[in-house]
Amino acid sequence: MSVTSTGSTTTAAAATTSTVQTAATGGTTSTGTANNPSAALGKDDFLKLLLTEMQYQDPTQPMDTDKILTQTSQLATLESADNTNNTLTALAASLQGSQQLSTVSAIGKIADLGDNTITTAGDGTSVTFPIYFPSDVSSGTATITDTNGNTVSTIAIGANSAGTYSFSWDGKDSTGKVADAGAYSVNVAYSDTSGNSKATKVGVYPIDSVKFDGTNTLLGVGPNYVPLSSVQTIY
């Protein structure tokens, strides 16, 4: 019996080791296709290991009840954790879908990007930018200022209906000198057709549409689509 015991123990160890290596490294079928290309052990792999260990155990020294219960408990814990992960993944996908759907309700509202600057390269090239007027315009002025708040140039605005219009700055200051490269703020003061004083600026536009690009939500504001995360305020 001692010879048989030694042979069984060796066989069990070899079989268990082979099973562990196959599960951990991914294993291959007879055609060379990986069974587990991610080399990850799941609850099914642990169950196979437990059954293999019991199948090749030494008949003279079988596993005790406590060991079996411990391994079974570990298997149940692993399965519970796996189910929890799957549930959380499904919940995250559901919440993302709900968030995207709720974003559609922003269409027609105003988005403030929190940035009213335009950028010039300092080579005299014209810079084109859009401005949104929430009400009809009688007359107005777009004022371009540097980072210190100094007025660099102004653009006269004539009568227009409410809406978004494109304006162009030639990249020069009020004396005709090419402005330095950098960012400049654009603010607009205007009078509506009733003579009321109004104000607007670059970076404030109505939301025309919503586009979903994978996990990203993009809002159609002005002439462009911008990520939802780039919007500072919606009102």
Describe it.
It is a single chain. With 235 residues, the protein is of the alpha+beta class. It folds into two domains: 102 residues, no CATH class; 91 residues, Immunoglobulin-like, CATH 2.60.40.4070. Helix content is 32%, strand content 31%. It contains three helices and twelve strands. The strands form three sheets. A five-stranded antiparallel sheet has the order 11-10-9-1-12, with no helix packed on it. Helix 1 packs antiparallel against helix 2 and helix 2 runs antiparallel to helix 3.
Largest sheet: 5 strands, antiparallel
What number is the mean pLDDT?
Answer: 79
Radius of gyration: 35 Å
* SSE pattern: HHHEEEEEEEEEEEE
Bin the helical content.
Answer: 25-40%
Structural class: alpha+beta
Percent of sequence in beta strands: 25-35%
Summarize the entry for a quick read.
Helices cover about 30% and strands about 30% of the residues. The protein is of the alpha+beta class and about 240 residues long. α2 (about 45-55) packs antiparallel against α3 (about 65-105).
Essential attributes:
235 residues, alpha+beta, Immunoglobulin-like, five-stranded antiparallel β-sheet, 12 strands, disordered N terminus
Question: Helix and strand layout, with pairings?
Answer:
Layout: H1 2-25, H2 43-55, H3 65-103, E1 110-112, E2 117-120, E3 127-133, E4 139-145, E5 151-157, E6 163-169, E7 182-191, E8 197-201, E9 204-213, E10 216-221, E11 224-227, E12 233-234
Antiparallel strand pairs: 1-9, 1-12, 2-7, 3-6, 4-5, 4-7, 7-8, 9-10, 10-11
